[in-house]
Design goal:
By secondary structure, this protein is of the alpha/beta class. Helices cover about 45% and strands about 15% of the residues. The longest helix has about 35 residues. The termini are far apart.
Amino acid sequence: MSSQTIIMAFLLLCLLAVLVSAFVFLMFSLAFFLSSRLERGAPFVPSNKKKIKNMLALLGVLQGIRAVDLGSGDGRLVVALARAGAQAHGYERNPILVFLARSRIWFAGLAEKAFIHHGSFWGADLSSFDVVVVYGISGIMRELEEKLERELQPGARIVSNTFPFPSWQPKREAEKVYLYERPPHRRAQLK
Ligand SMILES: C[S@@+](CC[C@H](N)C(=O)[O-])C[C@H]1O[C@@H](n2cnc3c(N)ncnc32)[C@H](O)[C@@H]1O
């Protein structure tokens, strides 16, 4: 075999490897895009330290309350809520983030106080939570508002990072972090 043939074969193999990698990458991106559309939620963008500080400051004392993060990402907010005294839960659809969040909880020694549920928060019953935190995206806020109105108990509090709810009036705001209290069942009363 001449050296020219070997070089050609090597280049062809490289080209094949690039094409296969590009195909796999495209398929993963497509699957992720489609699942994002189907499960109606934000992509993973973690809350920064300042936002987490503002969220906790708006919520005040969390000792003994049940809190949930809708789309818990790598678990940083769930850990912060548990450290502040809450029994903290997170719902997360991405299995890699579920693994990272559970590891974070384990390393923080909070396994008795913080829990990550793998799955969509849309199917979860939120009625037992006193506090809901969410870092969503504008397109889901109306539907989420309706779900929270249906399921949360009077007095439950909701904190939204960056995206306000379309019809609720925030009780307080700190640098694009909004605090709400679940209003009465307006939609139920209309029926
Ligand atoms: C903007 S990130 C916020 C992560 C975390 N809450 C924080 O503040 O650092 C949104 C997260 O929600 C997750 N997510 C989006 N839609 C979801 C759904 N329907 N059910 C569960 N998780 C969802 C995404 O995978 C992503 O990790």
